[in-house]
Every structure is written in C-alpha cells, then in structure tokens.
Amino acid sequence: MPKNDKPLGRGLGALLGGGDIPTGNKPHYAVGNNSFIKLESIEVNPYQPRTKFDDQELEELAQSIKTYGLIQPVTVRPIENGKYQLISGERRMRAAKLAGLTEIPAFVRTVDDVQSVQMALVENIQRSDLNAIEVALCYQLLIEECHLSQEELANKLGKTASTVSNYLRLLKLATETQIAVRDKQISMAHARALVVVEDHELQTKLVRQIIAEGLSVRQTESLVKKVTSAVPNNKKKVKITLSDEVRTFQTDFSKKLKAKVNIKKDISGKGTLTIPFTSDEDLKRIIKLLQ
C-alpha cells in the first residue's frame, strides 16, 4: 500500500451509519486485574483480511513483549463454551504466543456476528501498513457484509468512488499479479495498467517481465498497449472493463429506452454505443425518446 495513502479518517459510527456499535455491557478492560484471557480460549477471526505477517516483525514484537509485556490489549467477543473470538489484534496475539505468554489482556465487547465483522474490517482499514490487496479485500467484505454499493462505501469512508473502484478491480487480477502487488514487487499503478488484460496467462507473462526488467508505470502502460495491439489474436483475449460510471449509465439508459444498450471500448479508448431495435415501430419509438 503506498505510504502516502492515509488511513481511514472517520470513526466506526460514521461507517456504519451513525453512533457507536451497541455493545450491551460496557467494554471490559482486562488490564489491572486477574481476568486476563487464556490464549487457548481465543479463536482467530475468520474474516481477518490480513493474509501476511512479517516473521521478523513478529519476532521483534515478541521480544518487546517479553521485556515490557503486552501494552495494547486485543479486542475479543465472547462466543460458545467459554471461548472468545478475536475482533482485532491478531498480530499482537501471534507475537504473544511467540513470547511464551499463556494469557493476554483484552477488551471484551458484546457484539453480534455482523458487528464483529464490521469492527474487524474497519480496524484493518485504519491500519496504514496494509497492502493494496488487503485493502481491496476489506472493501469487498464491507460491501458484502454491510450491503453497501461502491458509492455508499466511498461516501462512508471519505474516499472517492474511483479510489474504491480501483482497489476492487485489483481482485480481478491473475493470482500471480495479486501476489506481486501484495509483496510490493509492483505498484498499484502497475496493476491498474495490467487489469485491462483479461487473459490471465498473458497477464502473468507481462508481470514477470515487468519485475525482471524493473519497468516503470509508463513503460508498463506502453508494453500493455504494444502487446495487445501488435498481436491480432490477443485482441480477442483482451476485454476492457468499463468504469462504474459508464456501466451505471449503460444500465440507466437501457431502462429509459427499454432496449439493451451496449457500450464497448478498446484499449485506446475508442469504442461504440449500440442501441438495438426490433422493428420500424420500435426504431421510431427510440428516435422519439432520443429527440
């Protein structure tokens, strides 16, 4: 994730539509008494979008924990059979295990499944060290779990719709390309140039070349354009993804005309807008609407 990409600047209440998440009882801060939670009683959150933890950083944190203890508690919620599910703090919990701790301090929050997912995802988005793929996964899960459109999510996060859309498009990349973005072998700008190449085999070859030759973003854009235009057969393998704004217009225009409007474009930006009709009468009806 680019270093100049600021973490989320709004609170959880703003994201979820006003007010804090209801917690039933007040949060219980376990520091300062004997009610630390045993590590064996804490289950990881299945909706944790963070997929990679740096081993060296975990070791360094573990050494710090051995010296000073776990200063910042994790956040959990009670589940069945005296167990707890982690809401946030998996990196701290992993480091605590490496440090040899058997129990750790925690905030205990009484929240339901959906609220737990929302809290975990927002906590992750607020981190400045998430890579672009992890941010994209957070956005996708928030859309699914909170039943939001891309535009609604962008408004609640204080982001532009294009920013959210650009992150989500990363999830359409070939697996090897996503790994390259995750491991910061290529930038998000490189990935945006590659996302127009729908043929994953071709895309994978291109990303390997970009990494091997250390190509800049501009060089990558030129390479994509050259490869997809120089080989005629590849044109059939390349599909240009329309922006959310254009797709919304296509849908709304189709409804207005009561005809399936089709918009196509190529890598150069040129394209066609097609309005089909079924008869002379239908054509007259469409022309009248257009006038």
Report, as a whole number of angstroms, the end-to-end distance. 48 Å
What is the ordering of alpha helices and beta strands? HEEEHEEHEEHHHHHHHHHHEEH
Number of strands: 9
At CATH level 2, the architecture of the largest domain is Alpha-Beta Complex
Q: What structural category arises from helix and sheet content?
A: alpha/beta
Taking Cα atoms only, what radius of gyration do you get, to the nearest Å? 24 Å
CATH topology of the largest domain: Conserved hypothetical protein from pyrococcus furiosus pfu- 392566-001, ParB domain
- The amount of beta strand, in percent, is 5-15%
Helix fraction by DSSP (H/I, runs of at least 4): 40-55%
Count of individual helical segments: 14
* Main beta sheet strand tally, sense and closure: 5 strands, mixed
**Largest sheet, order of strands side by side?**
1-7-4-5-3
Number of spatially distinct domains? 3
What is the highest CATH level, the class of the largest domain?
Alpha Beta
Mean pLDDT: 76
Segments where pLDDT lies below 50 for 5+ residues?
A: 1-34, 233-237
Shape: flat
Overview of the structural elements:
There is one protein chain. The protein is of the alpha/beta class. It folds into 3 domains: 12-161, Conserved hypothetical protein from pyrococcus furiosus pfu- 392566-001, ParB domain; 185-235; 244-290, no CATH class. Helix content is 50%, strand content 10%. The chain has 14 helices and 9 strands. The strands form 3 sheets. It has a 5-stranded mixed beta sheet. It has a two-stranded antiparallel ribbon with strand order 2-6. β4 and β5 form a beta hairpin. α8 runs parallel beside α10 (200-213). The relative contact order is 0.09. The model is unreliable at 1-34 and 233-237 (pLDDT under 50).
